[in-house]
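Example 169.
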Amino acid sequence: MICLVLTIFANIFQTGWTGPNERTFIAVKPDGVQRRLVGEIIRRFEKKGYKLVGLKLLQASEDLLREHYWELRGKPFFSGLIRYMSSGPVVAMVWQGLDVVKMSRKMLGETNPRDSPPGTIRGDYGVEVGRNVVHGSDSVASAQREIALWFRLNELHCWEDSSSHWLYA
Ligand code: DAT
Ligand code: MG
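Predicted structure in complex with 2'-deoxyadenosine-5'-diphosphate:
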């Protein structure tokens, strides 16, 4: 019940998730889906100890992607980015846990796979910035905006995590 109220509150006011309840938006991009990296990416987030609260496969519309990447609208690569991101299905996810926004960015690596160390997703599986396999929100505020953009309320699930006592003291 508390989880449901928080979810509604967070989606309407784009605030509300903190501490172990912090949430982020992660998406396996069309190249990641084509290259069969969905399982590997989910495996990393699961093993780390984060909780999956939303998951779906969809082919995103250009309108959704233009809104998602609104801040980059003036960049020369913007139209190519929208074309690439709408070229095939993506796997959209919401993951929850302590510091999940910041830690996910570390797990992803740098924007350009060339600058991403081995051990990170982009460092292990990508070569070029224009095909960097995975998206992750860059701040708590963007995470809340992106979750509200990509997911309906009834697609975010509240469930009791039986391992939480082994993850949080
Ligand atoms: P990130 O995805 O690491 O948050 P971003 O928000 O700056 O990076 O850019 C969004 C995406 O746009 C990025 O994942 C890949 C693409 N992109 C960024 N810089 C680019 C560039 N110089 N050339 C081509 N694509 C680029
Ligand atoms: Mg970004």
